[in-house]
Amino acid sequence: MRIRNETKADIPAIRALVSTAFAGKAYSSQTEAAIVDALRGNRALCATLVAEDEGRIVGHIAFSPVMINGRDLGWYGLGPIAVTPERQGEGIGTGLVKDGLAAIRKLGAQGCVLLGDPKYYGRFGFKADARLRLAGVPAEYFQALCFSGEMPSGTVTYDTAFDITNDEAPRHVT
Description:
Blueprint: E1 2-5, H1 11-22, H2 32-41, E2 47-53, E3 56-65, E4 67-68, E5 75-83, H3 92-106, E6 111-115, H4 118-121, E7 127-128, E8 132-133, E9 142-146, E10 154-157
Parallel strand pairs: 5-6, 8-10
Antiparallel strand pairs: 1-2, 2-3, 3-5, 4-10, 6-9, 7-9
Helix pairs in contact: 1-2
């Protein structure tokens, strides 16, 4: 398996993978594939990697800039991240997170935030921090990892792609 930057040719496979990975998950809005497409359309994907095994896309991770109190402080949001269901638990997600964090550090990122399972993301150094908030979500699931400087304080806002609802999400046939 190798992790690499996505290419235009990967887009249909990424869309199918993300849809499949989140299908039926209680914590999912079922809009994750549309969010990735909208981030791409908004030119907000600053790092987007795929895990490829024997010519097949088996994982994907996206990073996009976030604002803190309406200001660009060099922070990024991780997500969505997806691994094909039959390959989950093999370390593909771990590899994507590690390589993705390295990629945004090369871009000069000051830190990264995400919404996810504290048990999983804690291994990478992410933790809930009361100084950073995301409206409408339980505080323990909104986590941050500061790369340099002081942890900022305020409300985090993601790209408008994350505002997509099920009614707005296009249905793609792949």
